[in-house]
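Example record

Each entry pairs one chain with its bound ligand, zinc ion.
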Amino acid sequence: MSNLHSRPLPLEQVQVTDAFWRHETELIRQAVIPYQWEALNDRVPGAAPSWWVHNMKAAARAVAAKKAGGAYVPRHRSDSIVTQPPEGTAPDPDAFYGWVFQDSDGYKWIEAVAYQLMIRPDAALRARAQQAVDMICAAQEEDGYLDTFYTLTGRERAFTCLKDHHELYCFGHLTEAAVAWHQATGQDDLLNAARRFGDCIARRFGPGRERGCPGHEIAEMALIRLYEETGEEKWRHLADFFLDVRGVDPSTFALEENARRQAQGQAPLPVTAERYAYYQAHMPVRDMREATGHAVRQMYLCSGMADAARINGDAEMRRACEALWRSVVDEKLYITGGVGATHVGEAFSRPYDLPSDTAYSETCAAIGLAFYARRMLQLELRGEYADVMERALYNTVLAGMAQDGEHFFYVNPLEVDPAACETDTRLSHVKAERQRWFGCACCPPNIARIVSSLGQYIFTQTEDMLCVHLFIGSTVRARLNGGELTLRLDADLTRDGKVTLTVLRGEAEGAIALRIPGWSAGGGFQYPKTAQAREENGYCLIRGVWQPGDTIQADFAMPVQAVTASPRVRETMGQVCFARGPWVYCAEEADNGKDMHLLRVCPGEAANAQIIKKEIGGLTVPALCVPGKRVRVPADAPLYAPWAPPASEDAVITLVPYFAWNNRGKGEMRVWLPVTR
Ligand code: FUB
Ligand code: ZN
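Structure tokens for the complex follow.
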């Protein structure tokens, strides 16, 4: 089984019926997607402008001028990574604004729309996305080049700063959107735009041509997806090239930097790769063992590497993916499924450095972790991968979005004191409330695309096996060994760990693999007498001839657990947090009052926790009431005094799922709570 390679199912074949997740996917459809379209059009009062439509339209005019034979002279030549209209001036309609990677925001939005259309057709939504697709196609240059930053600021400098200027990142997002749009609509307009840009890139980079690789990864996994969609080998070769050239001396990033330095009369820098750990370009990818540098970049690289390991059967690449996984999961992962502990460079920190209040834990990084985990699952069916994927999805990914669908977190700390983060510049990256939009708005549309494609995380399949990774109520259609089955997965983890899989229609011979979640002590599977079952690597594999009415049942225990971190984690020493099933819990000021650093809990009280239903932002969530203490603060308490046992009073501490925090106004929040005996 260890060589099992599975693939996600087309989204048309999976219907999410789960009350909780259905609420979230509908929130994306009804609120987030329309809101984001307004944001891309800069029509959200009080929100940072996106400039997406502005840049696309400006680039389309530039491209039209070039096609008409006119020499296009950029209005503003710029090398800067972010450009805004000068204070107090009106935007120039022909200038590029925003971050160099601004194009990607709209690509992600189209990708999310495409997934939604696969789930349920919607002519009006499709027409709106078509407008965006048309804008992109109009902004594509005659030779296939497609990046509004360089089209508007000086095309001759295209591809000269791969390290920082994100053209290959935008290409990656364009390609992801193009494949999804093709799958949803059958249209090849955007797919051809991606292919033409891909050809333009491949004319410049590749074996026997220029060396170069993305400064921000994603093109690798996108190219493999384009290869899998079209069967065109050249895309997989380009992905291989980008992976193989990364981290090899002389560093392509150093060479491009030196070319710029030479033009400015500056001395060259050393050309060794080791300086580029921030970009995961410090050593050949197959030698990598520790997650380093920018967290989203690292997660996207790992995802691309896992895809490459799978399609190429590359054992060395797979070993590197596994080693990087260990580095992330054993040493650098927040309990909430977030990664990237430091705001300095939005990056991974040293092992076990997992601060709560200064945490970065970018929403996109948790999304990247879910991508990586799903791809590791495709390589090998192993419960641990699904456990981490689930943790990221249920906690940090969902925390990125308010229950109104119009406010978002970029940074996801595990402890917030609004008074501190609003006055202390060391915490300036931490927002006490979700924001309407961001100048750098990578996270909101990324949430939209991953939640819209949830079905691809619940199930994957091989020719012979349907794998059930997440217990999210749904129906699924799958072909096993040529026979077609329709199955219903009944589960509601907001309530309990009872899971039933029922064959509704069809007949097929094959295996069904159900994950045994890491948070459960086991479930005891029931399945038809004629089937055979065995447990392996965190899954129960049940093989049989499946017919309507057959069921598999499990009842996974979902006790409230007090969780402690390794003593190597300095930040959380002497503290616990509470978890139940996939949910990690936090205390909020709305339930527990201010000064939550005074709360104390006894881990043994987890067994006495009461599970209650709580309405938060229009959603009913499972909350916990745990007996605890609140330390008293005497009015005359001096700053220092000889130690004495602190006086405290009994308190019932209310905990809510982490994802749901900050839907009831601004206030303190804590995941980890100090232990009392
Ligand atoms: O650089 C593109 C995106 O912007 C990254 O993935 C995020 O971390 C943010 O820096
Ligand atoms: Zn982001």
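The chain has a mean pLDDT of 96.
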